[in-house]
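General statements about sequence and structure are easier to judge against a single worked case. In the encoding step, the backbone of a single protein was reduced to a row of integers, each denoting a local shape. The record that follows shows the chain in one-letter code together with its fold in token form.
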Amino acid sequence: MRRNSRPFVKREEEAQHRINDKIVAAEIRLVIEGEEPQVMSVSKGIALAEEQELDLVEISPNAKPPVCKIMDYKKFLYNQKRKQKELKAKQSKIVVKEIRFGPNTDDHDFNFKLAHAKKFLEEGSKVKAYVFFRGRTIVFKDRGEILLLKFAQELADCGVIEQLPKLEGKKMILMINSKKK
């Protein structure tokens, strides 16, 4: 006997389409490639599908009468999954790298962080540069904005400004997107 208390349930794929005997309509519109669509009873459609050793699949259940097609359903599902997998592989994930400055950042630190930002943009990532104002340094908002604009100007050859410096709470944020696609 199995140790867990749940009964054994045969794992069956959740059918996205109704096939063969699962079609509930009395009449269907059968679409056959190269021929005119025909309106017929479900039993006649299933008989036609069985002659060809294929399945009768309901493509558009909301139509009046529902539209059906004769095809190999397992092969159809396989091709659909493969297409979805290919689309997923082609998608690119956008990575956002953050670079933090203080309002009184010196030239050496600025150049060091600038080199990192150039490397990130060449890799194709977005760069979020921000000046963090701690305590009373919030009075130096203009210094922070000048620093970020200088940063954006230095990166003009490998990046495009997506968002100009904007103050949000204690942070002034600048977004730069990579030119390389």
Residues 53 and 138 are 76 Å apart (CA to CA).
